[in-house]
Amino acid sequence: MRVLGVDPGLADTGWGVVEFEGGHYRPVSFGTISTSPREDIQKRVYTIATDLGTLLEKYGCTAVSMEDIFFAKNITSAIPVAKVIGAVLFRFSELGVPVYLYSPLEIKMAVTGMGRADKNQVQEMVKVILKLKSIPRPDHAADALADCICHCTHKGLKEKLK
Fold this sequence. Notes:
By secondary structure, the chain is an alpha/beta fold. The protein is 51% helix and 22% strand. A five-stranded mixed β-sheet has the order 3-2-1-4-5.
């Protein structure tokens, strides 16, 4: 299975592609899509959704794993992120690819085993699990790879339970 992970954001959206087969992870690629605050929000959201669709097709991903919105911190920053999530859900629906949304708690649990893990712990475990030489940069890309690991863990567990 090849998964596209998405860490949604209006200024920077992280993305990562991970292949999971036989209980083994293989990082394929990762990066960010950045948009300028000088651009209209409609154009920014469109760019993110379109670019993610292109990445999905380029890397042949069969599923998308995305961090769901979390309101507890700042509702003002959550609204633009919600717009990005909506556009991404629409784009991947057009492409016929399922999107799996996970809470920050679920992602941290899947990657570190601790729901209250801090950002550094998650990033270090992403490095270890994917056998990378260093923590992926920028942070949004590392978060997107964590989304991939979360989905593969959940999917792998469901298959074992069948």
